[in-house]
Each structure stands twice: as C-alpha cells, then as structure tokens.
Amino acid sequence: MPASPPDRVIDVAVGVIERPDGQVLLARRPEGKPYAGYWEFPGGKVEPGEPVADALARELHEELGLSEVRSVPWITVRHHYPHATVRLLFRRVRHWQGEAQAREAQLLAWRHPASIELQPLLPASIRPIRWLQLPEVYRISCAGEWGVRAFERLLDEGLSACEADTTQARDRRPLWLQLREPDLSPSELQRLFERLWHWRMHRPLRLIVSSRHPAGLWTQADGVHLTSKDLAALAARPALPWVFASCHDTGELEQAAALGCDLAVLGPVLPTRSHPGASTLGWERFEQTLSDTLIPVMALGGLSQADRAQAQSHGAQGVALMRGGWPVV
Questions:
Q1: Beta-bridge partners for 86
Q2: Distances in Å between the alpha carbon of 242 and those of 118, 132, 295?
Q3: C-alpha neighbours within 13 Å on the C-beta side of residue 171
Q4: Using CA atoms, how far apart are residues 204 and 310, in angstroms rounded to an integer?
Q5: With 0-12 CB in 10 A as exposed, 13-18 as middle and 19+ as buried, what is 152?
Q6: Which of 11, 83, 143, 232 could pair covalently with 148 via S-S, beta carbons 3.0-4.6 A apart?
Q7: Mapped to the 3 state alphabet, what secondary structure does 92-140 carry?
Q8: What is the rounded distance in angstroms from the CA atom of residue 91 to the CA atom of residue 51?
Q9: CA-CA distance, 117 to 17, in Å (whole number)?
Q10: Which whole-number Å values give the CA distances from 87 to 90, 186, 253, in the listed order?
Q11: Other beta carbons within 10 Å of 28
Q12: Quick one: which of 300, 218, 222, 225 has its CA closest to 256?
C-alpha cells in the first residue's frame, strides 16, 4: 500500500473588516468556487515568505478594491479537508481607504455579529462570528477591596454611560463583568450577586461568575470564568452560554481551546500592585505565547483601558482589568 502523502497546510489570511458601529463585512462565494454560495470573511492564500498582514492587504485590494489596509492579528482557525489542512489566520481590520466593491462577482453584506442571518455560513466562520460579540474591555469586580457600595456606584455609572451611548459603537455595549470576590462573606457575595443579576436583566450588563464561587451562581449568570486549577480538572465544557478561563502559558491556552472555552485571559503581562516582584510576560513573550491560538485571548496584569490598542497589536482580543477598569470611559 502506498504511503499517505504528508499533511499539507495552506495558510490563508482572513480579514474581519469592522465599521465603527460594529458591523462586519461578509462575502458570499461566487459560482465556480468551492463552497459556492457560502458566506465567509474575505481573504486569500498567503504566498510563501509573504507576511500575513501584507497578504491580507493584497487580497482585500484584489477582491474588494480597498487600499491602505491596516490590520492586527486575532485568532487562528484550523479546518481539515481531504487534500489539505487550512490554517485561517484571522486579522481585524479597522483602518482602510475606499468603499468595498465586489470585484469577483461575490455578494457583500454588512451585519452586526449578534444578528447575522445570512445562510449558509462557511463552517470555519461560525465560531469567529460568535466571538466578535466578546468585549474588548473585560472588567473584574473589586467590591471586596473598595467596598460593595462604592463598587456598585462605579458600576452604575458605567452602565449609565453605556445606556446613554446612542451610536451602538462596538466598544460600548454591553459591559462585561466577572464577579470575582474571594474576600466577601457568602452572605455579602449573595447580596451583591442579586444586585448584579437584577441589573443584568434590565441593563446592558453581561455577568460572568468566577468558578471559585458556587456553581449555582454560574447557571443564573451569562457564564463562568474558570480558574486555571478548575480548567485543569474539567474533562468537558460546562453547559453555559459563555465559558472563559485564566491561563498562564501555552499549555493552558491549548487546554482552554480543547475544552471549548470562548475566551482565555493570559497574564500577568506587566507588574501589578497586588503581586510586586512577580514574574511577568512582557508584550513580546505575551505575543509569542498566544501565537497561533485557537480562541480569543485577553491581556491581564498591570494594564489600563489605555493599553487596549497595544494589547490588540500583539494579538489580544483586548484587556482584562480590575483596578484599571474603573471608572468606565
């Protein structure tokens, strides 16, 4: 029996082109191409030795007539075909010149990620579309440190700012919060959760509960944030809408992806006030650690909202913040 040919990996640069209001551009593959009629994000093959950013800029010019395309790395999606493995290198695009034109007889459509009704979707695009609903600033509660009333006041102000924003800008609605309060008593935690749950039902708040807290709270919220210890102990993804995980190295990132998590938080990137002298990743090592990651990753540790753009330039979804996340701006 002849030997099987070696696995062939084809790199494809994929662009998530985003307007300021959060709409993204999708294209329907024209007749004559594989998967004709399927909707996908635009892009194309990376030539040998070609930087991915350059490949994407070239493809978006050829397919859509866009110029001066600037992009940042985001996630990698692998898809297996009988003839090859395709590695889709997703990059987010927010700066370009020109209006998108269908230069290859494809149909084009702008849609908000939370309300894409286009069918059928290319299978490799389904999870990235869902992940585009994730925040770029992921806030962590600090009621135990600042006092419950003070924290509730800051959160109320942040939610009011979201409610007052009529632009539906991609970075303003809703506000995502992790409830993580190891220093509160069980009764204090329960009261705070009930307050947050009420806001979640009536205001633009997404509530994620740390796995260090009772599982009964997770199921009432939007999801759970797994500690690295709980991540290592689980054999299956919790049956919740959103599952996040804390990670510190490549192995834990791979474990989070294998479990089916939607988001990982990686750090610490920079020195923090709470852990002076602790080892940190720094931006270069942060980018190396999440290189080729299969799920979105947040940067954590010693950061503020002003670091979001830098984090994204190194491949992050955004920044996870505790003290640096308040007030909301």
A1: 10, 79
A2: 23, 13, 13
A3: 14
A4: 26
A5: middle
A6: 143
A7: EEEEEECCCCCCCCCEEEEECHHHCCCCCECHHHHHHHHHCCCCCEEEE
A8: 12
A9: 18
A10: 9, 46, 18
A11: 19
A12: 225
Q: Write out the DSSP string of 239-297.
A: SSSEEEEEE-SHHHHHHHHHHT-SEEEE---S--SSSTT----HHHHHHHHHTT-SS-E
Q: pLDDT tens digits, the chain, 329 residues: what are they?
A: 344 344 678 999 999 999 999 999 999 999 988 889 999 999 999 999 999 999 999 999 999 999 999 999 999 999 887 767 899 999 999 999 999 999 999 999 999 999 999 999 998 899 999 999 999 999 999 999 999 999 999 999 999 988 887 665 555 579 999 999 999 999 999 999 999 999 999 999 999 999 999 999 999 999 999 999 999 999 999 999 999 999 999 999 999 999 999 999 999 999 887 777 778 999 999 999 998 889 999 999 999 999 999 999 999 999 999 988 887 75
Can you tell me the distance from the alpha carbon of 272 to that of 106, in angstroms, rounded to the nearest whole number?
A: 49
Instruction: Please give the single-letter amino acid code of residue 247.
Output: C
How much is the CA Rg of the chain, to the nearest whole Å?
21
Give the span between the Cα atoms of 268 and 278, in whole angstroms: 9
Q: Which is nearest to 286 in space by CA: 295, 297, 294, 271?
A: 297
- Contact, 181 vs 192, CB < 8 A? yes
The amino acid present at 291, given as its one-letter code, is S
Q: What tokens were used for 90?
A: 């997703």
Tokens 């800008």, residue?
169
**Is the distance from CB of 206 to CB of 177 less than 8 angstroms?**
yes
Backbone angles phi, psi at 320, to 5 degrees: -105, 130
